[in-house]
Each structure stands twice: as C-alpha cells, then as structure tokens.
C-alpha cells in the first residue's frame, strides 16, 4: 500500500506545484505608464467586459455634449485595481462619441508610481484618480469612485468652476 500511496502523493504535489507556478506567472503583469484606451480594452478582459456592459443614459450624453472643448481628464489607474476596472471603462464608454474631450490614461504600479513620475507630482494616493482640468487648471478630482456618477460629478465640477468665475 505504501508503494502506491507515496508515489501518488508525490505526483499530486508535483502537479499542484506546477499548476500554482504557472498561474502566478501572470500575476505581476500590469500596464505601467501612459497607455491608450484601445490598448487597455484590448489587453485586459475585465476592462473590456465592463466597457461593453456599461450603458450611458441619454441625459448624461446631453450633459457631455455641453462640456467645453478645453476640458482634459488625466486618469491615474491600475490594471490590478478593482475600482479602476469598474470606473475607467465607464469613463471611456461615456466619452466614446465625444472626441472633443482629451483623456490621458496613466497606469500605475502597486505603490502608485509610474516611470515618468507624474503620479508623484500630482500626489496620487488612490486608484483610480480622475483629475479634471479646464483651460489647464485643475477643477476637481474623482478619487476611487464618484459621488453620483462620473458624468454627473464632472458636470458639477464644470458648473461650480464657471459659477466661481462670475
């Protein structure tokens, strides 16, 4: 009996070790630095699935139509981050028909760093962080998740900024 059990245990342990080693090979593969939306959606299935499944309401689409042409959004995110997997596709899908909005996506490592040091310069502590700029000036941030929705929160930032200037 021992002659059968010991080799069987050895075989099962070997299979388990190889299976675990193989599954961990991809754990540390994440995007780092500036990444195009198309790359993000092509290379990361969860982002792609969430993009495909998100529906923008007609009311939100009409809000985005009113956004100024000089609006820019920097997105600091992690391909390893569940909040980024949820929120970044929502922003990208919301803006798919509105090319007048400039969006830059910067992928970070686990320590919230990128090769160019952009995240450190703007004090990124959580992912995702959406920094919204109007005429080159920061008017607000959405950190991890919006209060209402990404579109509503950005619309509020724009309105509040315009009202502050009056």
Report what the structure shows:
The protein is α+β, with helices and mostly antiparallel strands and 166 residues long. Mean pLDDT is 88; it is low at 16-28. A five-stranded mixed beta sheet has the order 1-3-2-4-5. The protein is globular. It is 48% helix and 17% strand. It has a single domain, classed as Glutaredoxin, CATH 3.40.30.10. Helix 3 (45-53) crosses helix 5.
Distinctive features:
166 residues, alpha+beta, Glutaredoxin, 17% strand
Total tally of structural domains: 1
Uncertain segments are 16-28
Kindly state the percentage of residues in helix.
40-55%
Beta fraction of the residues? Answer: 15-25%
- Major β-sheet annotation: 5 strands, mixed
Reported by name, the CATH topology is Glutaredoxin
Structural class: alpha+beta
Q: Based on Cα principal axes, name the global outline.
A: globular
Identify the CATH homologous superfamily.
Glutaredoxin
**CATH architecture assignment name:** 3-Layer(aba) Sandwich
Radius of gyration: 21 Å
- Number of DSSP E strands: 5
Mean pLDDT: 88
Order of strands, main sheet, comes to 1-3-2-4-5
Discrete helix count: 7
- In whole angstroms, how far apart are the ends? 88 Å
* Order of helix and strand elements from N to C terminus: HEHHHEHEHEEH
């Amino acid at each position: 009996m021992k002659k059968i059990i010991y080799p069987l245990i050895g075989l099962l342990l070997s299979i388990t070790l190889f299976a675990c080693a193989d599954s961990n090979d991809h754990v540390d593969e994440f995007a780092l630095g500036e990444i195009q939306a198309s790359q993000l959606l092509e290379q990361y299935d969860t982002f792609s699935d969430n993009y495909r499944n998100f529906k923008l309401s007609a009311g939100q689409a009409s809000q985005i139509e009113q956004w100024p042409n000089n609006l820019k959004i920097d997105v600091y995110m992690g391909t390893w981050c569940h909040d980024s997997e949820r929120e970044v596709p929502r922003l990208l899908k919301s803006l798919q028909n509105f090319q007048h909005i400039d969006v830059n996506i910067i992928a970070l490592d686990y320590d919230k760093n990128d090769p160019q040091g952009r995240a450190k310069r703007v004090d990124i502590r959580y992912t995702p962080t959406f920094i919204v700029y109007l005429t080159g000036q920061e008017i607000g941030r959405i950190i991890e998740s919006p209060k209402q929705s990404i579109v509503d929160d950005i619309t509020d930032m724009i309105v509040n900024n315009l009202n502050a200037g009056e």
